[in-house]
Write a structure and sequence with these properties.
404 residues, alpha/beta, Alkaline Phosphatase, subunit A, 2 domains, eight-stranded mixed sheet, five-stranded antiparallel sheet, 15 helices, 13 strands, globular
Length: 404
């Protein structure tokens, strides 16, 4: 038996007036996924437990079979593992975004314009993180380059007792009301403030402004946590698997769970990622004998954060045609029994441009239990509400991997 989970990050949404009351999933031309839904099962799943913030860390842990209420120790430690940072038990990791602020005057009065600095390249970002390390690194603090705008700060013998806000939750708001709070958080505020003076006229940002691109003119620090301790995926479900994602967070979950993390050249985490390369990588993992592949695609989420309706729809269509279809055709021709689960990790409604906690739709298909096609079953929110319901992504994962 082969198992394939496809996660179009943030694909879930709300009805949109510009789409005549349809959601992006309803409006998108995802004929291949909908054909699978028609002969499989659809439903809704509550991936985010009550009382847990709807982050991609909690959501993907949940879909992969881990209850976030038990296993979630913070987002950044998972990213640190992916980067290759060897954390001690007393280290605290922080997600460090390179973001774009606009406006004039005091730092507190500037506007949080872009949480990803226009999807800055990793090569450009590395130069900025180097400048940050020159300014701030010491025996207690160090910054590490991740991918694109996503980076990591490690504080030795640090604290997690701060109130830190994800920048994508406060787009178009002033900096001041969203700065770190809590006892001892002053050093983080001071680094963020000073980073603006260091980065705003850095040669990388001068060049970006000349090209009409958003500058990465400040650090934004959030997502703190300590070293994670996930149980083995192999021991849990008795299968070997691989994870394919451009995002350090997802790679970190894979490594902590004992799964292989596969890097794909040109996988960017945005709309213009290497869909064909990711599909081929999944096929190669199955050919190598892996029973399970977890495919995470960040593009719908990034488009939602940017408020890009056209891009979100296009990303869903690319996933359907350029990624899902080749993997499905391989599995169908392999001669092996297989199961496919297609599910967003969470919703990222365009109206909010950030994550929400409502249930998300899913498609579940078992090649041994194919039904007569029913075109009323499709991959979107309205259709999902007529089908199965799981109170927990981990409950859905247990069902998916059960020997039925």
């Amino acid at each position: 038996m082969k198992y394939f989970i496809l996660v179009p990050d943030g694909a879930g949404d709300y009805p949109i007036e510009a789409l005549s009351g349809k959601s992006p999933l309803e409006a998108a031309d995802i004929a291949n996924i909908n054909a699978l839904a028609a002969k499989g099962r659809v439903g809704m799943v509550q991936t985010i437990p009550e009382g847990v913030a709807p982050g991609s860390d909690a959501a993907n842990l949940s879909v992969m079979g881990y209850d976030p209420s038990i296993y979630l120790t913070g987002r950044s430690p998972l990213e640190a593992v992916s980067i290759g940072i060897d954390m001690s038990d007393t280290d605290v990791a922080f997600r460090t975004n390179l973001i774009t602020l606009t406006g004039e005057g005091a730092y507190e009065d500037l506007i949080i314009k872009d949480h990803s600095a226009g999807d800055i390249t990793t090569e450009e970002a590395a130069q900025l993180i180097e400048a940050v390390n020159e300014a701030f690194a010491d025996e207690k603090i160090r910054f590490y380059t991740g991918v694109s705008y996503r980076h990591c700060m490690i504080v030795h013998n640090g604290s997690t007792e701060y109130k830190l806000t994800p920048p994508h939750d406060v787009l178009d708001q002033k900096v001041g009301p969203n700065l770190p709070e809590g006892e001892g958080s002053e050093f983080i505020v001071e680094m963020m403030r000073k980073s603006y003076d260091i980065l705003k006229d850095h040669p990388v940002n001068i060049a970006r402004r000349e090209k009409g691109l958003n500058p990465a003119n400040t650090l934004w620090i959030w997502g703190q946590g300590k070293k994670p301790n996930l149980s083995s995926f192999r021991n849990k479900y008795h299968i070997d698997g691989s994870v394919i994602s451009a995002v350090d967070l997802i790679k970190g979950i894979a490594i902590c769970a004992g799964l292989d993390s596969i890097d794909v050249p040109g996988a960017t985490g945005n709309l213009h990622t290497n869909y064909e390369g990711k599909a081929q990588a999944a096929i190669e993992e199955f050919k190598k004998g892996k029973q399970f592949v977890y495919m995470h695609v960040e593009a719908p989420d990034e488009c939602s954060h940017q408020g890009d309706l056209e891009g979100k729809i296009k990303s869903l269509e690319y996933i359907d045609q350029r990624l899902f279809l080749p993997v499905y055709e391989y599995l169908a021709a392999s001669g092996d029994d297989f199961r496919i689960l297609i599910v967003p990790d969470h919703r990222t409604p365009l109206v909010f441009r950030t994550h929400t906690s409502e249930p998300v739709p899913f498609v579940l298909y078992d090649s041994r239990m194919e039904t007569e096609p029913d075109n009323m079953k499709q991959f979107h929110e309205k259709s999902g509400e007529t089908g199965l319901y799981f109170n927990g992504g981990f409950a859905m994962a247990d069902f998916f991997f059960a020997d039925k």
